[in-house]
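User: I need a structural model of Response regulatory domain-containing protein from Halarcobacter ebronensis for a docking pre-check later this week. Nothing fancy, just the predicted C-alpha cells so I can convert them on my end. Input:
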Amino acid sequence: MYKDLKELLKYSHTIKILLVEDNSEVKSQLIKLLKNFFTDIDSCDNGIEALQKYINYEKIYGNFYDLIITDISIPGLNGIELSKKLLQCNPKQAILVTSAYIEKFNEFENIGVYEFLEKPIDYEKMVKTFTSIIKRLKQS
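Assistant: Understood. Predicted C-alpha cells for Response regulatory domain-containing protein:
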C-alpha cells in the first residue's frame, strides 16, 4: 500500500474532481477524506447540478474535470443517467462510482464505467483505486 500511496501523492495535486453525493454527512466525510490527497474538489448533491457544473467547467477552463465521483442514488439524474451524459460529452471521462448497492455496479460496466468503491469505503482499497485512476489519467 505504501507504494500506491506514494504514487498517488506524487500526482494527486494536479487532479480536478467533481464529487456528486446527496447525503450531506457522507459528502462532508468524503470531502474530508479526499482532501488528504487532492486539492481541487468541487461538489454538488444531484445529477442535474453535476451535469451543469461539468458543462460550465469545460466552458470556463477549456477542459473537463479529471475525475467524477458519484453515488448511484442521487436526485435529478441518477448515477447511471449522469454517467451516460458525461460520457457523451467526453468518452474518456474517468468516473468512480461509490455505493452500498454493489449489485448495481454491472449496470455501469454496461456503459463503460469500471471503477467502483463500495460504501463504507475501505481506505486501502480507496488508495489503490485512486492510484489506478491517476496512472490511467497520466497515460492519456
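Before docking, keep this in mind: DSSP finds six helices and five strands in the chain.
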